[in-house]
């Protein structure tokens, strides 16, 4: 039996076992049906329409540095086991595990009548299950984990890839790459849909913000829709995990700013460094002791874009003391020109894209 057949057989027998079907009087007949369908599955390369779900844990590498390798492997296996259970129940086929990332196919290797319905419902249940995962993590003294998910629907080449010594069933093509890029832009706890998926699902889903970004390999910008809820096959609501409204990227940029006193801008210039940046704010480290809700103004120069931004006003949200005696400040932009806002967005999107293959 080919490798893909063995994988499908193991997955389907696992579903039968967990559902209790193997304890029923017709268990032998059910097993025979599964074996027959797997043995006759079409594994030749072909073009087919699939829905691709990609998930990834946010900041997992940084979290892994705080615990032993054994503890992280055990926690990761608990996470993957729970996600696998949900994926198989919705008819998904796990294409591969990539560390803490999961690639799932709905509609391959076998066609699935409601692939988009299944993928969307599966994604929401995966996010809901993170409460259970994080309860286990807290019991082990670990910080909570957050997952981002991207979903895309389109035509791919599906089949065996490899050589005589090793091969595996997978899908390749532009739609797979697009799914990866959509997932990269998802925030902590967020599910993003491609425009193709959204168009076919808009009659039974609820969506929130729409993000429009430029991605490698695409001449036109790509729209990504935040999934909030679905009505099919029954109502499911995605939990709210993150208040951010954009990706956040790590940077190391000097910052010269001034503090506002009432509506007047102070004359004394102060210094710090920007350590991460998003569409609507940034995190600043400085030796200057600011206070929560202080207002500041600055001119931000992004040398990579070759342009000087106009003056920006921002508010300090809170004060985070640092181990080296400095202070950290989450800062939210309060007044910024449209041209400057677009420049920051393009800069952030560009860094996100650099992180994709």
Which structural class should the secondary elements be placed in? alpha+beta
Order of helices and strands: HHEHHEEHHEEHEHEEEEEEEEEEEH
Radius of gyration: 24 Å
* Chain-averaged pLDDT: 84
User: How many β-strand runs?
Assistant: 17
In the predicted model, the low-confidence regions spanning at least 5 consecutive residues are none
What sort of overall outline do the alpha carbons produce when their principal axes are compared?
Answer: elongated
First-to-last CA distance: 33 Å
Structure in words:
The structure is a single chain. This protein is an alpha+beta fold and 357 residues long. The protein has nine helices and 17 strands. It has helices spanning 3-19, 27-39, 60-64, 69-89, 115-128, 130-139, 174-185, 195-201, 338-354, and strands spanning 46-57, 93-98, 101-106, 147-162, 167-172, 191-194, 205-213, 222-230, 236-237, 248-261, 264-265, 270-278, 281-286, 295-302, 307-316, 320-321, 327-335. The strands form two sheets. Strands 1, 2, 3, 4, 5, 6, 7, 8 and 9 form a nine-stranded mixed sheet that branches. A six-stranded antiparallel beta barrel has the order 10-12-13-17-15-14. α1 packs antiparallel against α2 (27-39), α4 (69-89) packs antiparallel against α5 and α4 (69-89) packs antiparallel against α6 (130-139). The radius of gyration is 24 Å and the shape is elongated. The model has no long low-confidence stretch (mean pLDDT 84).
């Amino acid at each position: 039996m080919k490798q893909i057949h063995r994988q499908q057989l193991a997955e389907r027998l696992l579903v039968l076992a967990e559902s209790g079907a193997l304890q029923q009087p017709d268990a032998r007949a059910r097993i025979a049906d599964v074996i027959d369908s797997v043995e006759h599955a079409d594994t030749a390369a072909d073009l087919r329409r699939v829905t691709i779900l990609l998930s990834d844990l946010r900041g997992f590498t940084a979290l892994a540095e705080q615990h032993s390798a054994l503890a992280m492997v055990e926690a990761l296996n608990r996470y993957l086991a729970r996600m696998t259970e949900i994926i198989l129940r919705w008819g998904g086929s796990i294409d591969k595990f990539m560390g803490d990332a999961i690639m799932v196919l709905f509609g391959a290797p076998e066609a699935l009548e409601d692939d988009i319905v299944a993928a969307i419902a599966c994604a929401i249940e995966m996010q809901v299950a993170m409460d259970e995962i994080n309860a286990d993590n807290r019991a082990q003294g670990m910080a909570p984990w957050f997952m981002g998910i991207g979903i895309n629907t389109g035509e791919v080449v599906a089949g065996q890839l490899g050589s005589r010594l090793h091969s595996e069933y997978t899908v390749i093509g532009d739609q797979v790459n697009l799914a990866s890029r959509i997932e990269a832009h998802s925030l902590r706890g967020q599910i993003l849909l491609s425009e193709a998926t959204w168009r076919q699902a808009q009659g039974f889903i609820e969506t929130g913000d729409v993000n429009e970004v430029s991605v490698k390999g695409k001449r036109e910008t790509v729209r990504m829709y935040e999934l909030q809820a679905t009505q099919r096959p029954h109502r499911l609501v995605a939990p709210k995990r993150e208040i951010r409204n954009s990706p956040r990227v790590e940077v190391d940029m000097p910052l010269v700013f001034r503090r506002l006193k009432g509506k007047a801008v102070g004359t004394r210039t102060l210094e710090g460094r920007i350590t991460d940046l998003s569409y609507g704010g940034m995190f600043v480290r400085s030796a200057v002791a600011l206070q929560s809700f202080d207002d500041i103004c600055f001119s931000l120069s992004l040398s990579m874009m070759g342009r000087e931004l106009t003056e920006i006003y921002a508010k300090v949200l809170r004060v985070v003391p640092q181990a080296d005696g400095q202070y950290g400040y989450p800062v939210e932009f309060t007044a910024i020109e449209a041209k400057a806002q677009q420049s920051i967005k393009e800069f952030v999107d560009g860094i996100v894209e650099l992180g994709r293959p």
